Amino acid sequence: MSTATTPAPTAVTAENGRRATSPLRWWPAAVLALLVVAPWSALPLPGLLDGPVGSPGSLQLMATCLLFGALATGYDLLLGRTGLLSFGHALYFAAGSYATNLFLLEAGLPFAVSALLGVCTGTLLALVLGSVSLRVTGIGFSMVTLAFAQAGSILVSRNPGGVTGGEEGRAAPADVLPSWLVGIDHTANLYWLALAYLVLTLAVVHRAVGSPTGRVWEGIKENERRVEVLGLKPYGFKLTAFVLAGALAALGGLVHLLLTGGSTPQTTTSDFTLSLLVMVVLGGSGTRWGPMVGGILYTWADHRLGDLAGSGAVADLPAVLRVPLSQPLFLLGVLFVAVVHLLPGGLARLPSRLRGTVKEKR
Q1: pLDDT for 26-51, tens place per residue?
Q2: Residues facing 171 on adjacent strands
Q3: Which tens digit of pLDDT belongs to each residue from 127-142?
Q4: Which are the contacts of 54, defined by CB distance < 8 A and separation ≥ 6?
Q5: Of 251, 143, 137, 236, which Cα lies nearest the Cα of 205?
Q6: Is the separation of the CB atoms in 317 and 325 below 8 Å?
Q7: CA distance 108 to 105
Q8: Model pTM?
C-alpha cells in the first residue's frame, strides 16, 4: 500500500518545483524587454549614468557596453569554448570597420553593399590568417596571431595611400551613412542596433556551442589528442571556431563604425585584444552569460572611472588617495584582481557561490 502511494508526493513536489523555477527561466526575455524600452525611459540612475536612461549620452554609453559585451561573447568562442588563446582578435574587428569605411569613401558604394563587403572582408581575413595560425598550437599559435595583429596595426598607422588616416583614424562623413543612424536625434537607433548585435551574437554562440561541432570544441579544449584518437581532425573544427569568431568581430567593427562615426587605429592594437581577454576572464570564461557581463561591466567601468578620475572630488583628496584614484587603469586593475581572487571562474560563478553559502548556513 505504501509502495503504491509513495510516488505521489514526489510527483507533486517535482511539479511544484517546476512551477517555482519556471519563471526564472524567462529572466533573459524580461531583461531584453527592459533594454528594448530603455530609450523611452526618463528614469535617473545616479552613479551609474550621467543622466536619465533615455538621454543621448546614457544611450551612447549603454550602446557601447552592449557592443563590447557581444564582442567578448564572440571572443569566448576561441578562449572559453575551444581553448585557443588568440592575441589578434582585434584585427578582424578593425577589418570590419576599416573595410566598410573604405568601400564607402574610396569605392563610393552604397552603405548596405559596403557593410556587407566589410563584414565579408573581415571574415575572409579570419579564414586566411586562421588557416595559417592554426598550423601551430599552444603558445606558438598565440604568438602567430599576435604577429599578424601587430602587422595590421603597423599597416594602419603607416596610412598607405592615405586610406586609413594613420594615427588619427578615418571618419565616415554623415552624408555617406544612413540618415536614421546619424545625429544625436537618432542615438536610440544606434542603441537598438547595438542591442540587436548583442542578441544575434548570443544566439549564434549558443546555437554553435550546443551543436555537435560545439561538443567537439569542448573536447578539443579538454584534450585535443583524444579527439584525434576518436578519428576527428581538430584543425577543421578549430578553424570553424576561428572564422565564426572573426565574422562576429567584423560585424562588431561595423557597429562600432556607426557608433563612433569612423574607424580608429586603437581598435587594431594588441591592447584592444588584451582588453577582450580581461572582459572574458572577469565575467567567466566558457560560460553562457559571463563574457557578456564582463564586457558590459568592464566597458562601463572604463568610461565611468575615467570621469571619476578627472572629477573635482578626486582632485581635492590627499595625494595618497588622489594619485591612484586619478588613474582609471589602476582602478580597473584592482577590480580585476579582486574578482579573480575572490571569485575564481568570474562573475558568472557568483550566483552558485551565493546558493552554496545559503545552503551551508542552513
Answers
A1: 888 888 999 999 999 888 888 788 88
A2: 262
A3: 999 999 999 988 999 9
A4: 38, 39, 40, 41, 42, 43, 188
A5: 251
A6: yes
A7: 5
A8: 0.87
